[in-house]
Amino acid sequence: MELTLVSYNIHSGIGTDGRFDLGRVGEVLREVGADIVALQEVGDFRARTSREDQPEHLADMLGMHMAFGPNVVRNGRRYGNAILTRLPILHSKNYDLSVGRREPRGALRCDLDLGGGQQLHVFSLHLGLRVSERRRQEALLLGSDILRDAVRKDPAVVCGDFNYWGNGAVPSLVRQAIHDAALELGTPARTYPTRWPVLRLDRIYVDAGVRPLSIHPHRTERSRIASDHLPLVLRFAAPIAEVASSPSPPVELIG
């Protein structure tokens, strides 16, 4: 079976025009029509926007299952990563990737039910701005309690905003036998900034159980304005029997 996944840093719903419009983000995601949506910078702990329920609101707009991993909670306002999906969520967990006094960061993992006893592990993450910070976070991510032991025999996708300014692969991840889908397919897949994308800050990595078919930034007039990042869309095939369905998508909160 073929599925579509999108990784998207939504910048708290604040567009390049400086206007907060979460409905505009939802419309971009409707344009993509993905089965799995991995989001970063969801919510707003600085109180710059009018909504405190950004992940729930997006899930309701799209009619999808949702898990949310807040990395910052301040005065009741949350900020972190989210995964929305048409597939049932069997389990989810938020991992702390924070380093020192830098902005708290994390990786949200969802185990999705693909049917026939098959699972797909999806990680949505957002790494730090400094090189030394990212190296420490990569080491945490690759630790036995996060990536290696978590995925076991099931296929896995690791995606998000890596804040890695080079257009090549992240060496530490490649050494762990997961592959940069854009490099594997020979596609630039540059997503930042939206008006003139020259950097591959957003990445999608897959392991041997996932076969990438195509990858591209989703470029429309709306997506150029809705956030400072373009959505990165992957079409892939996984060794699955059939997709299970659920009549009413639950909302799962973490933390």
UniProtKB/TrEMBL annotation:
One Pfam family it belongs to: Exo_endo_phos
Residue intervals of the Endonuclease/exonuclease/phosphatase domain: 6-229
GO MF annotations in UniProt: endonuclease activity
SUPFAM superfamilies attached to this UniProt entry: DNase I-like
Protein's UniProt keywords contain Signal: no
Top-level taxonomic group: Bacteria
PANTHER family: CALCOFLUOR WHITE HYPERSENSITIVE PROTEIN PRECURSOR, ENDONUCLEASE_EXONUCLEASE_PHOSPHATASE DOMAIN-CONTAINING PROTEIN
Name of the protein: Endonuclease
Organism: Myxococcus llanfairpwllgwyngyllgogerychwyrndrobwllllantysiliogogogochensis
